[in-house]
Write a structure and sequence with these properties.
CATH architecture: 4-Layer Sandwich
CATH superfamily: Ribonuclease Z/Hydroxyacylglutathione hydrolase-like
CATH class: Alpha Beta
Helix content: 10-25%
Length: 217
């Protein structure tokens, strides 16, 4: 499903996170890996897989990065994650046991920091470091198109959990305050449906405690 021109949502099954294909050249997250065959087929229907050179993880949890190795073996693409989640991904410290699955370790090719830039033909994403769910959680912000790929920091009706290892409620609040300063029209979350419009109001509601539901791993 094309959610914004040039960005496709590749849906998984069960615990899989949303996977986004951007400009036929970059993937954001890979799910658990259990839906790899179905996701692979969906991607092949939309583009030449040889064009995909980069896999970005919004954070290290298994439901977002468990499929990294399968996708890298298939695409020969580099794995990129924020520097604060690198060790967790490489050591397999990714909460796989919460899904009754075996952890998979993945070697990281490159790390990101706050304000790192990720460019494709039609998009210029800036990395927004948003700890709270994990120490290295990130969002990807496209200022000119007002797009936020939010991982498990912000959903259409809540925020990511802060009670898991590495989570921190104070950090989450600071991250949401950072997001409140951005002009966002399209919210592409790590779980659930994309949301168009009302994003800045949603963030204000969360900060005010009107919407405070924590959800997803």
């Amino acid at each position: 499903m094309q959610v914004v021109k040039g960005i496709y949502l590749i849906k998984g099954y069960g615990y899989d996170s949303n996977v986004y294909l951007i400009d036929e050249s970059m993937l954001v997250d890979t799910g658990t890996g259990n839906s790899f065959t179905e996701m692979k087929r969906a991607i092949e229907e939309k583009c030449d897989k040889n064009k995909i050179k980069t896999i970005i993880n919004t954070h290290s949890h298994f439901d977002h990065a468990g499929g990294d190795k399968k996708f890298r073996d298939w695409l020969k693409a580099e794995i990129i994650i924020h520097e604060n989640d690198k060790d967790a991904l490489e050591n397999g410290d990714n909460l796989a046991e919460m899904f009754s699955m075996a952890s998979r370790t993945t070697t990281v090719d490159r790390t990101l920091r706050d304000k790192s830039l990720l460019k494709t033909d039609n998009f210029n994403f800036e990395v927004v470091h948003t700890p709270g769910h994990t120490p290295g959680s990130i969002c990807l912000y496209e200022k000119s198109k007002k797009i936020l790929i939010s991982g498990d920091t912000l959903f259409e009706d809540g925020i990511g959990r802060t009670d898991l290892p590495g989570g921190n409620r104070d950090d989450m609040r600071k991250s949401l305050e950072k997001l409140s300063k951005l002009d966002i029209n399209y919210l592409l979350p790590g779980h659930g449906e994309p949301k168009i419009g009302g994003i800045n109001f949603l963030v204000k509601q969360v900060l005010a405690g009107t919407v405070s539901k924590e959800k997803f791993v």
